[in-house]
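Take our chain:
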Amino acid sequence: MTREVEVRVQFGSFIIDLTCEREDVADFIKVHFDETSSAAPSDVSLKVSVLSDENIPNIESGKSYVHSVDKHKFNFGPDLIKGSWNDKKRTCRLALSESILSTEEIWLLNRIMCRIFYTLFFKEKGDDKKAFIVHSSAVIKNGKGYVFFGPAGSGKSTVAHFSERCEVLHDDMNLVVMSQKGSLVQGIPFNPTQLRLSDRRGPLSMFFSLHKSDEAKIEKGSRDEFASAVLPEIFLPQPVLSGGRRQAFQYLLNCVNELAEKVPYYRLFFKRDKSFWDPIEALEDVHGGYQQMPH
């Protein structure tokens, strides 16, 4: 009899327990998710198995995948990840395609985990609290949080690499939370390929879009420019049992507009060295955007 293996993950303020029906599935998940030693009770329990269907879908790079919902069940791919959600019991069943395990396309599971986070967040949040997940590199330096975003190849991992004396939260995806008490950034449990994850969070001081250049410099961006640049890099805020993109996008617009009023946005031009921190530090001396940590 195959032994079940439990994996515990902290995603934002939520504790997620994954019980894997196969050891190889648990090993696969452990490689890509950081476990937390938190003794707090879990917010949701996931039962993870493997789809038995012999018709294994092919995974294609750059392909657009669909998330469909039928009452309490969902199907992503289709037929790459199937599952069901019990809101009353706070339980979720996930069945992964063998193709995800064999090709190690963990980002497909990441999308479901993001939806699970949003499911929990929208259930718990107060009216004054907003959150979204952004494709970015985030760093805490001298107690202040900085978010660097851009499309693939823009330099997010490069920024993280040349921030080794700072605390890198994550070099690919981070969580931004806003409330009346301020804004913060926190790494999420998806394991980057080169860095050790941090479960810390920090008060958010500045947002930067990344632009490669022969010299390090900073340009102030407008609120509209920020929205236009950052929206394509945000994971659409949708729960696991939602297919309503219009409502999710309106929520996202509200988040971005509110953030633009609270946190300054700049275009960062940089080359492959740590010199980009010089104009940031000079700007911080003038900006003084340090906020108290929200609770």
Remarks:
- The chain has two domains: 5-124, 130-287.
- The longest strand covers residues 130-141.
- The helical segments are 23-32, 98-103, 106-124, 156-161, 223-230, 245-262, 277-287.
- DSSP finds seven helices and 16 strands in the chain.
